[in-house]
Write a structure and sequence with these properties.
This protein has helices at residues 14-26, 44-47, 61-69, 73-84, and strands spanning 5-11, 31-35, 52-57. It is of the alpha+beta class. The longest helix is centred in the N-terminal third of the chain and has 13 residues, at 14-26. 13% of the residues are buried.
């Protein structure tokens, strides 16, 4: 079965996009990031001037939006503390 993919959200930094991707993956939603960073050749201030897109399957869009719209700040802090052994 073929799935369409859609841009769920555009972020201004790769870090924000990576964090959102981690949240989605933690609940089983596959996603990937897309950014026009010149293959890594553009310097940092210009690398993500067009933003970093978080892309998901069309059938996951609604659930992914609900998850990202919820406040997960404490969950993320706990997750990273656990990974760092704090």
């Amino acid at each position: 079965m073929k799935s369409n993919i859609l841009t769920l959200k555009k972020f201004s930094t790769r870090l924000e996009a990576e964090m959102a991707k981690e949240v989605l993956e933690s609940v089983g939603i596959k996603s990937f990031l897309s950014a026009d960073d010149g293959g890594g050749m553009r310097p940092a201030p210009f690398a993500y001037s067009m933003g970093v897109e978080l892309i998901v399957r069309e059938e996951d869009v609604q659930r992914a939006k609900e998850i990202l719209d919820a406040d997960h700040s404490q969950e993320l802090k706990d997750h990273f503390r656990q990974e760092e052994g704090l």
